[in-house]
Write a structure and sequence with these properties.
- It contains six helices and 13 strands.
- A hairpin with an 8-residue loop joins β6 and β7.
- The radius of gyration is 21 Å and the shape is globular.
């Protein structure tokens, strides 16, 4: 089913993709190994039904159970440089790198409630996601909120999260669509072609061996200070249209407009200068090779309180 290996150790996490038989991306998700034969799958909320349909279609003849937790469970994201301190005020669990590694999951008690804690972050900061029974999570939230008052804790919304994930060069639903293959989306680092097989493997190999139709490029765009863009803007190279923007936002942590765009391969090389047509004006853009914010993932793996 997945283009990556399953997580091997109990409590480990992998990010992976489900493909259709044409090798196009259906869903990006994380897989957590809870026991030897039990896995916890997490995807974006708007892909839930697609995930359920995909699993049921391909696994209907297999001897296993698929249990949907969404109606009974909720999740809280605790993100930011002070997230370890706030969480530590409500749990006796070890939260250091040695006690709780990045990209692992553990059952811990927070404010007296048992939750499944995942050390992952879509914002590019130190952080955890807490998953647990819905009837407990308001109390967990209240305890975390109270502990965070000394550190200027705040809620953030989906627009802020979208901005932060683009700063970190994390692709989203605009980039990971069933119109593109894994090589075109530039996510082959999450793919294990040494697997005996996975749905869409042959098509993925074919995509690797032929000239790509387009490639997902990461851009820094010169801003006019008025309009950042909305997505769908034309991208030009040497005066010719070579693609379009899929996601765009102003990155407050880096002070730049950043975007993803599907463009012809000749325009996707790092350092290439492009132009983006934004509200009738051409703005200069440059293809980047690494995240604009914390390219070394130092903050995600921070160990100090």
């Amino acid at each position: 089913l997945i283009a990556n290996h399953l997580p091997r150790k109990i409590g480990s996490i992998v990010l992976t993709h489900l493909l259709n038989r044409r090798g196009r991306i259906e869903i990006e998700l994380i897989v957590v190994r809870l026991t030897e034969d039990c896995f916890y799958l997490v995807c974006a909320a708007f892909f839930e039904q697609r995930l359920i349909d995909h699993l049921n279609y391909y696994l209907m003849e297999n001897d296993l159970d698929i249990v949907v937790r969404s109606n009974k469970w909720s999740a809280i994201a605790v993100q930011g440089p002070k997230s370890r301190i706030v969480l530590a005020d409500n749990t006796d669990a070890q939260l250091s790198n040695s006690g709780f590694q990045w990209l692992t999951a553990r059952s811990i008690t927070v404010a007296g409630y048992s939750v499944l804690a995942l050390r992952i972050s879509y914002t590019g900061e130190l952080g955890w996601e807490l998953h647990g029974p819905r009837e407990d999570m308001l109390s967990v939230y209240a305890a975390l909120w109270a502990a965070g008052q000394a550190y200027d804790i705040a809620d953030y919304g989906s627009f802020a999260m979208n901005t932060m994930r683009i700063e970190k060069m994390f692709k989203g639903m605009g980039e990971l669509t069933n119109e593109v293959t894994l090589p075109e989306a530039d996510v082959m680092r999450f793919v294990k072609m040494d697997k005996d097989n996975f749905i869409g493997k042959t098509e993925t190999q074919n995509s690797l061996e032929r000239e790509l139709r387009w490639v997902c490029a990461y851009l820094r765009i010169e801003s006019d200070g008025m309009i950042d863009g909305h997505g769908g803007e034309a991208v030009l190279f040497a005066g010719n249209v070579v693609g379009s923007i899929t996601s765009v936002a102003y990155g407050h942590r880096v002070g730049s407009v950043l975007a993803f765009a599907y463009v012809k391969p000749c325009a996707a090389r790092p350092g290439t200068m492009l132009q983006v047509m934004n509200a009738g004006s051409l703005n200069s853009a440059c293809v980047l090779s690494q995240p604009a914010y914390d390219p070394g993932n130092v903050l995600l793996q921070a160990d100090s309180i």
